Amino acid sequence: MDRLLKELDWLDGESEAMAAQLIEWAAINSGSDNMEGLTEMLGALRKAFAPLGADEEILTFPWIESIDNDGDTTTLPCGAAYNLTKHESAPIQLLLVGHMDTVFSKTSSFQKLEQINGRLHGPGVADAKGGLMVMLKALETLERSPMAGKVGWEVFINGNEEIGSQGSGKWLADHAKGKSFALVFEPSPVDGAFISSRWGSINLALIAQGRAAHVGRDFASGQNAITALSCLTLALDELNDEETIVNIGTFHGGDAANVVPEKAFAKINIRSASQEAMKETEKVINTLIREMEKTASIKFNQLLLSKRPPKPFNEKSEELYLTIAKTAKELGQSMEWKSSGGVCDGNLLAAAGLPTIDTMGPIGDKIHTHEEWVDINSLVERAKLAALIMMKATH
């Protein structure tokens, strides 16, 4: 084991290079809706990962359904993904997953990068370009070690993770087959803990179709879509409990105060602690819609924008976590874990039956906000842990 630990020593001299590379990546705006920026980021990743000598493939996905500002269904382009494979004939096969897209659009005011007291602040530095940096250095360490060739690996770097992996979800489920376990390089919380179980998430658009009418001349013949959708969303808000969160995120409708609005739409996010709770919530929503259509004479349409099932902390998961906790201890690192209401591609991999650690990225905080930061020292720490986990995979 001491021999393997020595293979990690070279990473101590890589901290500055890792930070510099991360700054370059984070300076590229690769918001999920910025296809030009995602293409640039893909090129930067191909250059950085090329020395690994893996077989590479650019994966493209069909356009995805969405809803525009008028409440009409539309289609949007879906970011491509970067796939690499090496040592496919090795007896142990691992899946490493990260994502290149961020929540910050091309027009976002948050584009600045700065280093303050050992932290790098900037868009995507933790979620999840810092994770990609950890992944790259861990793989470099594996490939220069005596374990090179004894462990096969496949890398999947998603370009549509932040919008629910609508395009790539099926690919992830298919490629979970035949793997021993997965490492997903999402950031760890500020306390350095790993995430064990995760809630599930559904993003849904609800569209109410009524009938327009002049308020003064023909009010009685109108069917108010805003009123009907308001009643429905208030009923949905009553579903919140210990195992369910229903958040009405956006609400739009109407054109003028003297016109009965014929259309209104809302986007809602549902979080469920278990698969049973998720199914029950979906069932109740459908029942409420049918009842509202009868009483208000309004037609409701649903558009599923994304869905990720809950990730339970089962026996297989606990076995993997305990194994990795021993590895962390060998490095003088602690490994605590806790549940989270957040979701990621780890939810999809776990649903496919693959044991998954999905916070192998660096320590960071304030993700999805203009205060996002990553702990620069944790880049090397997590690279060492990920590398040692992979080197020990044959044991």
Strand line-up in the sheet with most strands: 1-4-8-5-9-18
CATH class of the largest domain: Alpha Beta
CATH superfamily of the largest domain: Zn peptidases
Q: Tell me about the biggest sheet?
A: 6 strands, mixed
Helix amount: 25-40%
The CATH architecture of the largest domain can be named as 3-Layer(aba) Sandwich
Structural class: alpha+beta
* Rg on CA atoms, Å: 23 Å
CATH fold naming of the largest domain: Aminopeptidase
How many β-strands, per DSSP?
20
Percent in strands: 25-35%
pLDDT < 50 stretches: none
Overall 3D form: elongated
Number of domains: 2
Distance between the termini: 11 Å
Provide a count of the helices: 11
Average pLDDT taken over every residue: 96
Question: Secondary-structure blueprint of this entry?
Answer:
Blueprint: H1 2-6, H2 15-26, H3 35-49, E1 55-59, E2 64-67, E3 73-76, E4 81-86, E5 92-99, E6 114-116, E7 119-121, H4 129-143, E8 151-158, H5 169-175, E9 181-184, E10 194-198, E11 200-209, E12 213-214, H6 215-218, H7 225-237, E13 244-253, E14 259-260, E15 263-272, H8 275-296, E16 299-308, H9 315-330, E17 337-340, H10 345-351, E18 356-357, E19 364-365, E20 373-375, H11 377-391
Parallel strand pairs: 5-8, 5-9, 9-18, 10-17
Antiparallel strand pairs: 1-4, 2-3, 4-8, 6-7, 7-20, 11-15, 11-16, 12-14, 13-15, 19-20
Helix pairs in contact: 2-4, 4-11, 7-8
